[in-house]
Amino acid sequence: MPLSEEELRLLEQMERALVEEDPKLASTLRGTAFRRSARRRAIVAGVGFVVGVVVLMTGAVAQITPVGIVGFVIMLVSATVALTALRGQQTAVGPDPRAAHPSRGFTVIEGGRTGKTRRTRRHHHSSHSFMERMEERWRRRREDGGF
């Protein structure tokens, strides 16, 4: 079950607090071992993908449908493992803890309803990220009580 927006924000705050309080522990937890294992999984998944292509093509050329299906499944699983490993490697690197002042690491999380506010229609420009637009939509939905 995916985490809610508020839970994700809380986790990010806790991570930032850990980095600020004990950067050595945070770097150890993120560590190079995790990146190394993620890279190894991505390479193995790449090799598995190539094997899947070979099995798929063998099944297609020999006109053996089950072999082709097995090759496709191998490719699908390998691609999923590779993408998961690469995403994990990117999040393990994370932001540079020295980039921001410690007091700027915390943000206020809006909680509860502050009453009905007049809803203004804003035009979203392409400069806003997808997540910002989704957060704004979610915020408006909560304010209107439209669950």
UniProtKB/TrEMBL annotation:
Pfam families: DUF3040
Residue ranges of the region described as Disordered: 92-130
Membrane-traversing stretches: 42-61, 67-86
Protein name: DUF3040 domain-containing protein
The entry's keywords: Membrane, Transmembrane, Transmembrane helix
Organism of origin: Nocardioides aquiterrae
Basic residues bias: start-end ranges: 115-127
